[in-house]
Amino acid sequence: MTDCLFCRVVAGEIPATIVFQDDAVVAFKDITPQAPMHVLVIPRRHIGTLNELTTSDDALVGRLVRTAASIADEHGHAASGYRTVFNCNADAGQTVFHIHLHLLAGRRLGWPPG
Ligand code: 5GP
Ligand code: ZN
After folding, report:
1. Distances in whole angstroms, Cα of residue 16 to Cα of each of 29, 45, 56, 69
2. E strands present in 3-114
3. pLDDT at 2
4. What pTM, to 2 d.p., does this model score?
5. Are 98 and 86 in contact, with CB atoms under 8 Å apart?
6. Cα–Cα distance between 93 and 103 in angstroms, integer?
7. Which of 3, 58, 73, 75 has the lowest CB atom count within 10 Å?
8. In the 8-state DSSP scheme, what is residue 3?
9. For the purposes of burial, counting CB atoms within 10 Å of the CB of 76, is it exposed (0-12), middle (13-18) or buried (19 or more)?
10. Would you state the pLDDT for residue 3?
11. Mutation pick for ligand 1 pocket among 7, 29, 31 (CB with most ligand atoms within 8 Å)
C-alpha cells in the first residue's frame, strides 16, 4: 500500500535504522523509543491490524515473534528480559495500521501498561 507508512519503510522510501530483514520480515528502530531498545518487527506484506490475520498467517506471526526473541538475545536481553507488544486499534493506541510487534528492552518495564 503506497499510503502506508510501514509499507514505505519496507520499500526503502522512508529511511529507517534496520536491524534485521529477510524475505518476510523487517525489523527497525522505533523513531520515538520508549526504552533503551525499541524495535518494531513487521511483515513485508501489508496487514492492517491483528483482526485481519487468518490461519495462513500463522507461520508469519511465528516469524515475527521469533525474530523479536532473536534480536533481544543478540543484544543481551534474553536473560534479563524484554517485552513484546502488538497494539490493535484505538483502545490499545495503535497509530500505524500495518501490524508491528514492539520489542522493548533495557529497562524495568511496568505492568500493567497504561
Ligand atoms: P503503535 O502506536 O501503532 O503501536 O506504534 C507505532 C510506532 O511507530 C510508534 O512507537 C512510533 O513511534 C513508531 N513510528 C511512527 N512513525 C515512524 C517512522 O516514521 N519511523 C519509525 N522508525 N517509527 C515510527
Ligand atoms: Zn503497510
Report:
1. 7, 17, 28, 20
2. 18-21, 25-29, 37-43, 82-85, 101-105
3. 79
4. 0.98
5. no
6. 16
7. 3
8. T
9. exposed
10. 94
11. 31
Q: How far is CA 39 from CA 2, 47, 53, 114, in A?
A: 22, 18, 21, 19
Query: Is the beta carbon of 85 within 6 A of some atom in ligand 1?
Result: no
> Which atom of ligand 1 lies closest to the CA of 5?
19
Residue with CA at minimum distance from ligand 1 atom 16: 31
Give the end-to-end CA distance of the chain in Å, rounded to a whole number: 31
In the chain, how many H helices and how many E strands?
Answer: 3, 5
